[in-house]
Structure formats: structure tokens, C-alpha cells
Amino acid sequence: GAVVSQHPSWVICKSGTSVKIECRSLDFQATTMFWYRQFPKQSLMLMATSNEGSKATYEQGVEKDKFLINHASLTLSTLTVTSAHPEDSSFYICSARDVRIDYNEQFFGPGTRLTVL
Amino acid sequence: GQNIDQPTEMTATEGAIVQINCTYQTSGFNGLFWYQQHAGEAPTFLSYNVLDGLEEKGRFSSFLSRSKGYSYLLLKELQMKDSASYLCAPQNSNYQLIWGAGTKLIIKP
User: Fold this and answer.
1) How far does the CA of residue A80 sit from the closest CA of chain B (Å)?
2) Which residues contact A9 (CB under 8 A, 6 or more apart)?
3) Nearest CA-CA partner of A99 in A30, A20, A26
């Protein structure tokens, strides 16, 4: 099956620093990847849609200068949280669409738990 | 607008059957997914429906009625490990998944 990895699985950083999260599709090519954020006991919130070779499409209310997304290859997308603050502490999950599957299933990475002190 | 309506929490007994209902409204429709999510983990795929009717997959079945904007997930022979949140996620015309808060299912012995 399609496998998506994320790195790191958890990170603790000081306020004001930047954190980069990687999302990789291990055994398939993903022209589209999605970045989500989930706060405790809340639904997944789509932050942005990342298309290989083009600029990401951000959802309303998500600051593109704060959450930098790069999708430089068909198997890798990165999310950089710049100048992180405690309110950015959350569970960040990526997903990748396997275009070989007709119904556009999204395969999820295991998530990255970010804690900003 | 786009929204999902599922019960917040349900409780069932080990070995029993439970049905989790979902009503939805989306901008366009490209199928509906059900995912399972354990606390602190990412969602895992359970089922996909794009046509009306029932899809059966082992202990789990999912039903869709597009005209009613309604789906349900049926879990049979419940096991303790089935305790998790169950997320109904329709896909809109932009192939984005629309997420609600999900249904927390508690299984009791």
C-alpha cells in the first residue's frame, strides 16, 4: 500500500525559532500533498494544498509567510513554521494523494507533534 | 456552506453492533471517506463510497445516500481496539476532504 512518512515525529522548540517538517511519499509519486493542523479534541483543519512544482494554495486565515510550504519533488513536501510561538503548538499532519488510485484517496503521514515553549 | 454533522460520542458493548450516522453538505461531491483516528495518531482509511448503497469490508460497512446527504458506518463484532474517533469526510469538487470533529466511540467490556 501507499506509505507516507513524516519527520520529525515530535519536536520541542523555543519561541521565535523556525521548525521544518518533512512529508515523504515512500512508494508512490504524489503530485498533490495536503497539510493539516489538529488541536486537541478538534477536527482536522486543512492549512494548504501543495502541488509539485508550483506555489501552495493556502486556506483562508492561514498565513503563508508564517507557514512556508515547498513541494520540490514528487515525493517530498516540507512545511516550515517560521518564528514559532506557543499558540502554534499543535499536531501537524500531511497527506498525499496517490494518483494511481481512481478515487483520489489521501494517505496520511503519522503526524508531527510540535510544542513551542 | 460546507459542514458535517456526526454525534459527538457513542458508547457500545464489546461484541455488539454500532451505527455511526453522518449528514453532510459540500460544494460539489466526489465521494465520501470514513477514517478511524486513535488519540494522538493520524487518521487511517476505512472506506470510500461514491455511489449510493452499501460497501462491505469485513467487520466494517459504509452506506451512502447522495440525495439525502447521508452516510453511516456500521461496525460489527465490536472489539476493545475499536475504541477511537470515527471521521466522516466527504470530498468536494476541488477534491478537498471536509472534516468534522468526528464521533468518539467508547467500547465497554
Assistant:
1) 19
2) A110, A111, A112, A113
3) A30
A103: nearest CA partner in chain B = B31
With an 8 Å Cβ cutoff, are B99 and A45 in contact?
yes
Interface test with chain B among A38, A44, A99, by most B beta carbons within 10 Å:
A44
Q: What are phi and psi of B74, to 5 degrees?
A: -110, 125
The number of residues in chain B equals 109
pLDDT exceeding 90 applies to what percent of chain B? 84
**Distance from the Cα of residue B84 to its chain's centroid:** 11
Instruction: Tell which residue, A101, A69, A92, has the closest CA to residue A6.
Output: A92
Tell me what pLDDT residue A18 has: 97
Residue A41 confidence (pLDDT): 83
Q: Are strands A45-51 and A19-25 parallel, antiparallel or unpaired?
A: unpaired
**pLDDT of the residue at B79:** 97
Which residues of chain A are modeled with pLDDT < 70? 1, 101-103
Q: How far apart are CA B43 and CA B63, in angstroms?
A: 20
End-to-end CA distance of chain A: 37
Yes or no, beta carbons of B42 and A109 under 8 Å apart = yes
Instruction: Point out the residues of chain B with pLDDT beneath 70.
Output: none
What's the gap between Cα B17 and its chain centre?
A: 14
pLDDT over 70 percentage in chain B? 100
**B50 Cβ under 8 Å from any chain A Cβ:** yes
